[in-house]
Structure formats: structure tokens, C-alpha cells
Write a structure and sequence with these properties.
This protein is mostly helical. It has 2 domains: 2-72, no CATH class; 90-324, MetI-like fold, CATH 1.10.3720.10. It has helices spanning 2-29, 44-54, 60-72, 86-121, 126-140, 143-157, 170-174, 178-219, 222-229, 234-271, 277-286, 290-318, 320-324.
Length: 325
């Protein structure tokens, strides 16, 4: 098990280095980054002075090493527009994005597991057909269209939920004020429902189909037939014997799901005016604020790789064959 953990850690480090290299090269492949830091009326002498001041006149390998040193110190440059550290801007918005992503994951997982199991155990019946039809409908619906429809119907016409806004929950907890975060939770849910459903519906539909196919494969195994032949109840067979093994591919998918949901919040946060990293990135791309985009990409990549490492370790606990391989 120890060798497996070390191997996965080394792989994660290589992936993060690859992401930082791509992020660094993107800045330079788009052209001379010096022109992002000077006005359109700057003279050639001012451009040259700025290029030397920022270190863009040095060879690319030297600049990349300097970039890595700054990354280790938590320094990914200054925002061109706000003149604040790019990492600080991203970290300020990160709790709101994590709230939305976690809420969407809770929606997709807690609903997908029971309906996927139900579809598998009722294979060929109306329950199975209805659930798979809804799953197909959920996967074919663009998230931005769903968000706009929810805004128009639930928010503007029925006025059941607010169409924009945010009540912080994680931010107070991270500052050490857990009581404030918990007290904000009931009101925060009103603002989370519509964007959370918008992001989570596609994931819910995909996870339900995955749970169903995984359960069908497990239910056809000999040990499940043996458990039934011993006279065990169907509930015991499904939950105690089949469900644990069916979870193995599902757990793997959940790790990837976090990355999918993080990428989905970029559009959804803009639709609902959610003050998260996704909206920050959208504005930074529009304003050509490359350091902020870089900091967001690196931070998202680190979160994604870290969660996938955690999922791989859980996967090894669920399936002893992975630890022995």
C-alpha cells in the first residue's frame, strides 16, 4: 500500500508540473506578454523598460524556473486590472465556488445512487425506462439554457427563489467562525438551489446511468446468486453484497466529477452572478488579465489532482486487488 501511495504521489507531482508548464507557455504563445502591462500609447523605450522589469527579456527556461519559484511562494503575479496579487483574488472567490460545487455534487450523488440502484433492480420495467429517459433528458440539456429557464420561471415569474446573490458559508468557517457559517446555511440554501441544480443535473443523469450499469454487472456475479440461494433477503443482498462492489467505478467517476463541475461553474456563475472563481475567470479573460487566469487554472488543477489522489486511495481500500497489484 505504501508503494502505491508513493507512486500516485509522484504521478500527481508530474501532472501538476505539466499543468504549470502549459499555463506558463500559454502566456507566451499568445504573443509578447509585455504589451499586456503597458498602455497602447507607450513608447518603444517604455516597452523595453517594462519587458526588462518584468523579466520577459530572459530565456524561457529561466522564466519558467522563476515562475515555479513564485508558485512555491504562492506568488503568481499581480492582476493587471486591480494591481493585487492574482492568487489572493482567486482565493477570495474560491469558498463561493466550492460551496456551489459541493452542493451540486451532493445533489447529483444523493439522488443518482438510489435511482440508479432502483433502475438496476427493476430492469426492463417502467421504473427502469422512466429513469433512463429522464437521465437521457438531463444529459442532453445544456446547463446555460437550464439556468436561464430557471431564472425566468422560478426566479422571475414564480418568485420562489432569488435570481442572484450569495450568503457565505465556507468563508466564515475558514476564518474560524464556524457558528456564523452554520447560522448562514439556511439562508444560503435559497441562493444555492437554482445554480446548484443547473450544474448538478447533467452530473446526476450521468451518475445514475453509471450506477445502473455497475449494479447490473455486479448483480450478475456468482456470489450474488449464492447469497440469494442462502435465503438472504433482497435488501440484504443488494445493500450488503452488491452495492459495495458496484461503488468501485462510481467512486472513480466522482473524482473526475469534481473537475467537471468546477469547469461547469464558469458559465453558471456568470448566469447567476455568483461571486466565485468562474465569474472571476470570465471577467479576467474579457479584460485580458492573464495572471488571474493563470492563477485560477493552476489552483483548479491542484484541487482536481488532489481530489483524484484521494479517490484513488479510497479506490484501493474498496478493491484490495489494487493494493496488491
Amino acid at each position: 500500500m505504501g508503494q502505491y501511495i508513493v507512486r500516485r504521489l509522484l504521478q500527481s507531482v508530474i501532472v501538476i508540473l505539466g499543468v504549470t508548464l502549459l499555463s506558463f507557455l500559454t502566456l507566451h504563445l499568445a504573443g509578447d506578454p509585455t504589451y499586456l502591462y503597458v498602455s497602447e500609447r507607450a513608447s518603444q523605450e517604455e516597452i523595453e523598460a517594462t519587458r526588462k522589469l518584468l523579466g520577459f527579456d530572459r530565456p524561457l527556461p529561466v522564466q519558467y524556473l522563476s515562475f515555479l519559484q513564485g508558485l512555491v511562494r504562492g506568488d503568481l503575479g499581480m492582476s493587471i486590472r486591480s494591481r493585487k496579487p492574482a492568487v489572493d483574488l482567486v482565493l477570495e472567490r474560491l469558498p463561493a465556488t466550492l460551496e456551489l460545487t459541493l452542493f451540486a455534487m451532493i445533489i447529483s450523488t444523493t439522488i443518482a445512487l438510489p435511482i440508479g440502484i432502483l433502475a438496476a433492480t427493476k430492469r426492463g420495467t417502467g421504473w427502469d425506462g422512466g429513469i433512463m429517459l429522464l437521465a437521457m433528458f438531463g444529459q442532453s440539456m445544456p446547463s446555460f439554457w437550464l439556468g436561464i429557464m430557471l431564472l425566468l420561471s422560478v426566479g422571475l415569474q414564480l418568485r420562489l427563489l432569488p435570481i442572484s446573490g450569495h450568503v457565505p458559508v465556507l468563508a466564515p468557517m475558514l476564518r474560524g467562525d464556524i457558528s456564523e457559517g452554520l447560522s448562514n446555511l439556511p439562508n444560503a440554501l435559497r441562493y444555492l438551489v437554482m445554480p446548484g441544480v443547473t450544474i448538478g443535473l447533467f452530473s446526476l443523469a450521468r451518475n445514475a446511468r453509471l450506477v445502473r450499469s455497475s449494479m447490473l454487472e455486479v448483480l450478475a456475479q456468482d456470489y450474488v446468486t449464492t447469497a440469494r440461494s442462502k435465503g438472504l433477503g433482497e435488501r440484504t443482498v443488494i445493500l450488503k453484497h452488491a452495492f459495495r462492489n458496484a461503488l468501485i467505478p462510481v467512486v472513480t467517476m466522482l473524482g473526475l466529477e469534481f473537475g467537471f463541475l468546477l469547469s461547469g461553474v464558469v458559465v453558471t456563475e456568470t448566469v447567476f452572478s455568483w461571486p466565485g472563481v468562474g465569474r472571476l475567470v470570465t471577467n479576467a479573460i474579457t479584460q485580458r488579465d492573464i495572471p488571474v487566469v493563470q492563477a485560477s487554472v493552476v489552483l483548479f488543477s491542484f484541487l482536481f489532482v488532489s481530489l483524484n489522489l484521494l479517490v484513488d486511495l479510497i479506490y484501493a481500500q474498496l478493491d484490495p486487488r489494487i493494493r496488491l497489484a
